[in-house]
Amino acid sequence: MDFAALMSKELDKSKKPTSTAAAASSSSKYIKRADVEAKRREDYLAEQARVEAEREAKAAAKRKREEEDAAENKIREEKRQKLAEESRRRREEKEAEEERARRKRLGLPELVKATAEDDDDAAVEEGMEDIPDGQLAEKLRALGEPATLFGEGHGARLRRYRRLTTVVTKGPIPTTLQLVEEKDMKVDAAVPKDKEGRRWLFRQLASYFTMVLAEYEKAMEAERRDTTASKTAYSAMVQSRENLKPLFRKFEKYDLDDDLLAPIIEISPRRRRVAPDGETETATTRENKKTLFETPGRVPDRESGWNSNGG
Q1: Among the three residues 113, 136, 166, which one is the final residue of a domain in this structure?
Q2: Torsion of CA 293, 299, 302, 304, to 10 degrees
Q3: Using alpha carbons only, what angle is made at residue 10 by residues 5 and 13, rounded to the nearest 5 degrees?
Q4: Are 300 and 306 in contact (CB under 8 A)?
Q5: Are residues 181 and 222 in the same domain?
Q6: Is residue 132 part of a domain?
Q7: 237 and 179, same structural domain?
Q8: Among residues 166, 181, 197, which one ends one of the domains?
Q9: Quick one: what percent of the chain has pLDDT higher than 90?
Q10: What is the pLDDT of residues 190-214, one digit of tens each?
Q11: What's the confidence (pLDDT) of residue 182?
Q12: Strand, helix or coil at 115?
């Protein structure tokens, strides 16, 4: 090998690494669009996650502040009520002491302090079933209510429990009376004299009027049109419902005179009794038959039951 060939070979060796580095440098200038989009999406998702985390942190901090404020307000309100009760109790004691001193100075007899027995008597008069005081306190606590309030007797506590547990029926006129089924709505012709009978009668009447009003409302809703006659009929139905509300309140209190009960029973479905011939008859039918029997010239007919002579 001559000197020229040797030098050419050495020069080729020195040029190869330079060309490789240049090619690598040239390829690094170009990046795939997919890689760019993936990197951009990754950065966007990371930013959204950071923003959402900050939002949740702020919301949690806000809820915590609100809960702390609510707890502080509750404690403050309880303290205020307690102070108000203490102030009222001291004021009442002071007024009672001044009244005792005044009556003693004037030579008047001392006032008799009302006891819880008066409340108990009132509760029994209202027809509420009595509950022992211990059980009543447990029931009130189970409802999340205080077992007793300041100055509250057993009767008042019992009434408070009844108000909390009273179920109001759904209907045209909501009522606390327990409604009966349609088959039990037929009432007797005479007004019952005993307490249980009257209570059952009030439940029957409330159930009957509830059923009638519900059907009335349904019919008016079905025929409701944008006409004067339809609006007038619907207004009459609403007015009838409003007029019956005081009657329902009387039913709930079991407080209605016999003079009013009698005509109400007349328009209510009455219990029928079986006649000797197997037919059913009401009190009105019996009165009509009695009149027919006493009418001259009227004799029974096999087909119609009644006929006149020569008819």
Answers
A1: 166
A2: -70
A3: 130
A4: yes
A5: yes
A6: yes
A7: yes
A8: 166
A9: 11
A10: 888 888 888 888 888 888 999 998 9
A11: 85
A12: coil
Residue 50 domain flag: no
**What is the average pLDDT across 36-42?**
90
Q: Strands, E, within the chain: which ranges?
A: 273-274, 280-281, 298-299, 307-308
- b vs e for 101-112, b when ≥16 Cβ sit within 10 Å of the residue's Cβ? eeeeeeeeeeee
Lowest-pLDDT range, 90-99, 147-156, 164-173?
A: 164-173
DSSP per-residue string spanning 134-175? HHHHHHHHHTT--S--TT--HHHHHHHHHHHHPPPPPSSS--
> What is the H or E stretch that residue 212 is in?
helix 195-222
Collect all residues with Cβ–Cβ distance below 8 Å to 283 and sequence separation of at least 6: 189, 270
Say what the alpha-carbon torsion angle 174, 176, 181, 186 is, to the nearest 10 degrees. Answer: -100
Half-sphere exposure of 266 (CA within 13 A, CB side): 7
Domain limits at 295?
273-308
Give the pLDDT confidence score for residue 58 in this predicted structure: 93
Sequence letter at residue 213: L
266-272's contacts with Cβ under 8 Å and 24+ in sequence apart are: 268/185, 268/187, 268/204, 268/205, 268/208, 269/185, 269/186, 269/187, 269/208, 270/186, 270/187, 270/188, 270/189, 271/186, 271/187, 271/188, 271/189, 272/186
Give the tokens for residue 90: 């001291």
Residues 95-139 have pLDDT tens digits of 888 888 887 887 777 765 544 445 454 544 455 567 888 888 888
Provide the percentage of residues in the chain whose pLDDT is more than 70: 74
Q: Are 201 and 191 in contact (CB under 8 A)?
A: yes
| SS3 of residue 75 by DSSP | helix
Structure tokens at 153: 């007797």
Burial 141-151 (b: 16+ CB within 10 A, else e): eeeeeeebeee
